[in-house]
Structures are given as C-alpha cells and as structure tokens.
Specification:
Layout lengths: L1 H14 L5 H24 L1 H17 L4 H10 L1 H13 L1
C-alpha cells in the first residue's frame, strides 16, 4: 500500500511537470517496474509490515508530541526489539 501511494504521488508530480509525453511515458513505465519490485520485496519480508505495524500501534497508544524523537528512541530501544521479536514469533 505504501509503495502504491508513493508511485501515485510520483505519477502526479510527473503529470504536472514540464516533461514531454515521451518522458512521462518512460517515467510511468519505470515507476510501474519499481513499484512491482518494491511490492515483491515487501512480500518476501513480512517482518517489515510487522515492524511498522508495531511502531504505529505504539505511536497511537502513546501519542508523543515529538514524533521524530519518539521514532528515534523506539527503533534504538532494546525493549522495542524484544516486543517486535515477540510479534514475529506469533506470526
């Protein structure tokens, strides 16, 4: 889903740019290939979705004012890694 949103955003930027129709078509083809590659990678690595899901749950639970600082601490924190490993073990 994230890959799809990013691809759509890039397509919208290209549509509103000064690119020729040939350049837009080429960029569109490249974006489709890149999106397919990213989606395949995410399917091969379900732990990415699990990690992001746990992070978002914690953000919503705690609702920190400084999201960047919270994210830095969350990904650095050993406790978060243990919680994440527990989530992976349940899958």
């Amino acid at each position: 889903q994230l890959c799809s949103q990013l691809g759509n955003a890039l397509r919208n930027m290209a549509d509103n740019s000064l690119l020729s129709s040939e350049e837009r078509a080429k960029l569109g083809t490249q974006l489709v290939k890149e999106q397919a590659k990213n989606e395949a990678y995410l399917r091969e690595h379900p732990e990415i979705n699990a990690l992001l899901s746990e992070f978002v749950k914690d953000v919503l639970r705690k609702q920190p004012e400084n999201i960047k600082g919270f994210a830095a601490e969350w990904f650095r924190n050993e406790g978060s890694r243990e919680n994440f490993q527990h989530t992976l073990d349940r899958q």
